[in-house]
Amino acid sequence: MVTNTDYDKYLASKAAALIRENFSDRGVINFLVVKWGTKKSKRVLGHIKAIKTSEFGSIIEINPLLKNLNVPEYVLDYVLMHELTHYFQGFGSNHERKHKHPHRGGIVEKELERHGWKEIIEKSEKWIKENWKETVITNRN
Ligand SMILES: [Zn+2]
């Protein structure tokens, strides 16, 4: 049986691997938590926010519907990479911010393409377009 702890470990190690493989030149300079969110959102697959309590940190939350077995692994990778890109571009983190807006000018896509993710972006967008709505409806409750 796959437990919630297994899912949490899976997500954390996946995020660590993606950082290692794609952003090793940058480094994680502030506290970063990557976890499953609790909200089965229809529209938000992942998001990042800053935690400004005692020390500056960031938290990435991934839509729990992405645990669903009919969601291809590359879609989860894609969502994680999107949020990690925000992190390294200084949105929701204290990395240096070179852009004013997190999405304007396709800066996330450009960064992902620089890492060789063009094909995965396209595949993922296609899968999301064709299957996400159904995934939400059948796994709502
Ligand atoms: Zn975004």
Task: Explain what this protein looks like in three dimensions.
The chain contains four helices and three strands; from the N terminus they run H-E-E-E-H-H-H. It is α+β, with helices and mostly antiparallel strands. A three-stranded mixed β-sheet has the order 1-3-2. Helix 1 packs across helix 2 and helix 2 packs across helix 3. The longest helix has 22 residues. The model has no long low-confidence stretch (mean pLDDT 92). The structure holds zinc ion. The site of zinc ion has 5 residues, from helix 2.
Provide a concise account of the structure shown.
The chain has 141 residues and is of the alpha+beta class. 46% of the residues lie in helices and 14% in strands. It has one domain: Metalloproteases ("zincins"), catalytic domain (Zincin-like), CATH 3.30.2010.
Q: What bound compounds does this protein have?
A: zinc ion
The number of distinct structural domains comes to: 1
Major beta sheet, strand line-up: 1-3-2
- The percent range for strand residues is 5-15%
How many helices? The count is 4
- The CATH topology turns out to be Zincin-like
Helix-strand blueprint:
Layout: H1 4-22, E1 31-36, E2 46-52, E3 56-62, H2 73-88, H3 107-114, H4 118-139
Parallel strand pairs: 1-3
Antiparallel strand pairs: 2-3
Helix pairs in contact: 1-2, 2-3
The structure holds zinc ion.
Residues 82, 86, 102-103, 108 line the site of zinc ion.
